[in-house]
Design goal:
- Helices cover 27% and strands 27% of the residues.
- It is globular.
- It binds adenosine monophosphate.
- The site of adenosine monophosphate has 23 residues, from α1, β4, α3, β6 and α4.
């Protein structure tokens, strides 16, 4: 089973995001960039399926500027076999990304595509669902358990109020939730080996996909600063404040 895993390069989760002074967007200068955490989980899951003898090849794909290649190398160091970089200088948005992925799926013919449930920069949570619709493939979103069986997969989904178990035929789309696994760290020898693994660069234009953004950012602003709290001495004082100041009852 060939597995295609998508990788988005995003601002590292530990970085405090700065907004540009004119509110036109995020300030990326000098900011640490990393593999989107949900995509790291996707790579880990593909590797585990390979270790179990269920997956035969893991191809990682990223769409964006040249520096995506650094992120793809990080995925190769974790254990992916091959990488594809679809180069574009346009801002990538879910529909455009899903259209590019559809073309790559038709070319690569994977039986399973694993995406993160969301990219932590735009928090869209749309790409996997859009790809599933474009390909007319079944989708298991927010997956916290994946079992590959003969010609089908069984997924456990994290849904409101509990867990949902679904079976679906292959080929299929899966998007990862936080509890699916705990990603490994890349070892130094694997980081060195990753430099030799194949990384193909394709221009988005050559795929004939329109990546023109459909959404326009009007304004970005920091969330309001939290006000300092107050310490209360007694439960009665707390109840009094909740009633008179917070007016919660
Ligand atoms: P989103 O719908 O933007 O929240 O993204 C969901 C998932 O789609 C991400 O976790 C990635 O796996 C994939 N994805 C989104 N944008 C890209 C991109 N530019 N390149 C590769 N994969 C992407």
């Amino acid at each position: 089973m060939k597995v295609l895993v998508t990788i988005k390069r995003v601002i590292d989760y530990s970085v405090k995001v700065r907004v540009k002074r004119d509110g036109s967007g995020i300030d990326f200068s000098g900011v640490k960039m990393s593999l989107n955490p949900f995509d790291e989980i996707a790579v880990e899951e593909a590797i585990r399926q390979k270790e179990k003898g269920k997956a035969s090849e893991i191809v990682v794909v990223s769409i964006g500027e040249k520096d995506c290649q650094e992120t793809l190398r990080a995925a190769l160091a974790l254990g992916a076999d091959r990488a594809i970089h679809v180069k574009t200088s346009l801002e990538t948005q879910p529909l455009g990304v899903a259209k590019v992925l559809k073309v790559l799926v038709e070319r690569e013919k994977p039986e399973l595509v694993i995406l993160g449930k969301q990219a932590i920069d735009d928090d869209c949570n749309q790409t996997g669902q859009m790809l599933s619709a474009l390909l007319n493939w079944p989708q298991g979103t927010f997956v916290s358990k994946l079992e590959v069986m003969k010609d089908k997969i069984r997924v456990v989904r994290e849904v409101d109020g509990g867990l949902e178990t679904l079976d679906m035929p292959l080929p299929a789309i899966v998007t990862t939730d936080l509890r699916l696994n705990e990603p490994r760290y890349a070892t130094l020898p694997n980081i060195m080996k990753a430099k030799q693994k194949p990384l193909e660069e394709i221009s988005a234009i050559s795929l004939n996909v329109d990546l023109t953004p459909h959404l326009k950012t009007l304004h970005v602003k920091e969330p309001p600063k939290r006000k300092a709290g107050v310490k209360v001495k007694t439960v009665d004082e707390l109840l009094d404040k909740l009633q008179k100041e917070a007016k919660v009852f």
